[in-house]
Design a protein that fits this description.
Blueprint (H helix, E strand, L loop, with lengths): L2 H20 L6 H12 L6 H11 L5 H13 L3 E4 L7 E4 L7 E6 L5 E5 L1 H13 L10 E4 L2 H6 L7
Parallel strand pairs: 3-5
Antiparallel strand pairs: 1-2, 3-4
Helix pairs in contact: 1-2, 2-3, 2-4, 3-4
The protein binds zinc ion.
The site of zinc ion (ZN) has 7 residues, from loops.
Length: about 160
Amino acid sequence: MSAKTDDRLTRAWESFRKFMLSKDLRVTGQRRRILNAAFDLPDHFTAEDLLERARQLDESVSRATIYRSLPLLYESGIIREVDVGHESKFYAVNRRSENFKAQVICVDCDKIFEVDAPFMEWYGKTVSENLDLDVKTQRLQVHAECPEYREKFQCPKDS
Ligand SMILES: [Zn+2]
């Protein structure tokens, strides 16, 4: 883990701790390790990925603890949900002040690419303001084919 990640993790923990205290929730070592696990994972992890990684750090972490902690991490702004219309939700750590992201999803291997799309944020805001509405959420999803798919009609699959 780089010094930079370490620093972000410290700040994330500090804001998560404050969030929990403000909600009268217990600040536990398990929650700290779940946060660490989220920072260890590449973007677009599932609850099960988080469980697996958290258990490597602390084998007492249960599935129920993960499912109770995810909404807290989400509400406190530490992570965001990346809903690509699959059965299982994906999550990603908010690593810096993030631009609006559009998701491009491969039709074959389901790999998710995220690209900055700040104009989308502007567009959503503009069209809503014209209707005198406030934007709550918006998303842009593009379904596409990986380069490998175009060549071989099949993507390399994990495992
Ligand atoms: Zn693919």
